[in-house]
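Sharing in case it's useful to others searching the archive later.

Someone asked me privately for the predicted structure of Smr/MutS family protein, so I'm posting the question and my answer publicly. Question first, with the sequence:
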Amino acid sequence: MPEKLTVDLHPVYRSDRDIDTAVRNGLFRAAGQKVPLLEIIPGKGSGKLRDRVLATLKQPHLKKLYKRVELAPGNDGKVLVHLR
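And my answer, the predicted structure tokens:
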């Protein structure tokens, strides 16, 4: 079992639908494989993509899959999702 699963959003940053799909698929895959940590990389930039990722993760049906969400210490370009 891998220690963490990484989802890089750089290739899909222009499409809100693709961003939501990538985040949801990564979360479902990590939960299905029982990976303890999902690392989502929206990049640093202006923070709009990171805010979109955090808003997606706040959906009630997705909140059931993880314990907590945090920004990587010292790196605002990564969102760490700790799964149950």
